[in-house]
Specification:
The chain is mainly β and 113 residues long. 0% of the residues lie in helices and 54% in strands. Strand 9 and strand 10 form a beta hairpin.
């Protein structure tokens, strides 16, 4: 399984960005996926998760971020609006696996005032 993020960059406070994660899973079926982020000096945290019929968000992004998945394009998205300075972080695409989970290389999002 290979996960490749794109779409990060510089945005102004109040602006928007959409992250994409291209999924190459071969014969591995992936039902659940998510976005995590790690800000400088902080631990990695879950931002949003998606499973069939269900989405979950960390409280700090509820109402501002939307996670979605396009199975036809094998792509996971994270639409981010009303960006805040505290959204600055490296964002990682994630999928649970066994014996280890799958992670992308990360895409950096920087929000400026």
């Amino acid at each position: 399984v290979k996960l490749v993020e794109s779409g990060g960059g510089l945005a102004q406070s109040g602006g928007s960005l959409t992250l994409s994660c291209a999924v190459s899973s071969g014969t591995v079926k992936i039902d659940r996926m998510g976005w995590y982020r790690q800000a400088p000096g902080k631990q990695r945290e879950m931002v949003a998760r998606i499973a069939p019929g269900n989405t979950t968000y960390v409280d700090s992004v509820k109402g501002r971020f939307t996670i979605s998945r396009d199975y036809a394009k094998d792509t996971l998205y994270l639409q981010m609006t009303s960006l805040k300075l505290e959204d600055t972080a490296v964002y990682y695409c994630y999928a649970p696996g066994w014996p280890f989970d799958y992670w992308g290389q990360g895409t950096r999002v920087t929000v400026s005032s």
